[in-house]
Amino acid sequence: MIPVGVLTGFLGSGKTTLLGRLLKSPDFGRTAVIINEFGEVGLDHDLIETSDESFVTLQTGCLCCTIRGDLVLTLAEILRRRDDGAVAPFERVVIETSGLADPAPILHALMGDDHLAARLAVAGVVTTVDAVNGAETLGRMPESVKQVAVADRLVLTKTDLVDAPPNALLARLAALNPSARVLSATFGAIDPAHLFDAGVCDVSGKSPNVPAWLADIPHHHDAAHDPGRHDERISCFALIRDRPIPAVALTLFLEVMAEHCGADLLRLKGIVDIAESPDRPAVIHGVQHVFHPPAFLARWPSSDRRSRLVFIVREIPRAFVEALLAAIEAEVHEAAQPA
Amino acid sequence: MTADPIATVHDLLVAGLRAWRVDGSVTRAPDGTLELTARGATLRVSRASLPFRWMVTFGVRSRGVTSVAGLLRTVRRVVDPDHQSNRLRIAPAPLVPP
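^ Those are the sequences you sent over. The predicted structure of the assembly is below.
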């Protein structure tokens, strides 16, 4: 499997600078880069210098809304060229979105194509945030809020231009997406090993990374009750269940969430104690109404065997999600009783 | 989790109206029937005998539904007719690479 990282961030937040530095890193060689620029004349791709083993492909137009199909075609094409030996045998792909892009449809495109899914694995979403202007941008531009909300890693850029740690911005980022790790880059310099490592497993399939992936999930109800963990329309909360959840209840729950809240369910990830599979928990991950197939782990990654579901949502009341799961659990329980 | 299905569904409908951004209210009558009022419409939700679980009455029309999912869908079609729903899609890409 070839890992695919999505690099996003608002206009001027330092995506291209970060990418340029990454591509010069020996640890980040053999990378295929797809740069999406909004507008007829792209510039960013001319600003990227690559090693001989990496290359850059440019797409214009808005990746998230008009050329999602083109992204699939582009990925298929570079895989074909790799197979034919026409390009260097790249070991990873990075997609740099335009500054106005919504990352969710891009993830859908990566998750939803049969042929790509057999060869490519999403390795995470990295969002750059300008330490100088980030707070103001988050206040004015809803696109930037969503870019932060769906991130696995947040990279604070231009930190050399601020005198003190931007505590207000950091608090805002924590409120929007407490499960994303925040890193810092000065002039784009950052350890690439910490960027696109957000999958459940190492894409080689050899080194399960479940504990790290799950480490982001709150272990206590209290984490979700923190009133500071909301920001206008976006909120993050966790549901924790001490009792196993029947498989059919989980399926129904996800179906209803997709039906009624799909566009506003920015991200859902969790580990679930499935009643029918007590020793092998299911890991679930979805973006809006599109989910990966649940992955059943060989064993519980820790002694904590509770179901833990983390939601990043836009204007979905926590009370609805809690009431829905409770109602479905009750219904499934009732249906299992003798008539 | 409460053992009272009416109370459970009451809580769900109250939260559902908020989630759908629909102004309205849900009250519980002494006979256990729920009355939901929103956007000029009034629906009555009551328990039904098998094969249904819930009966939704809107004006002179009654419709039986077999699940909470069906109940929410039926109610929302009345109080939020412009809603465009999504269907759950399970993508082919595995969460854990094979």
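Chain A touches chain B through 58 residues (CB under 8 Å). The longest strand of chain A covers residues 120-130.

Shout if you want it in another format.
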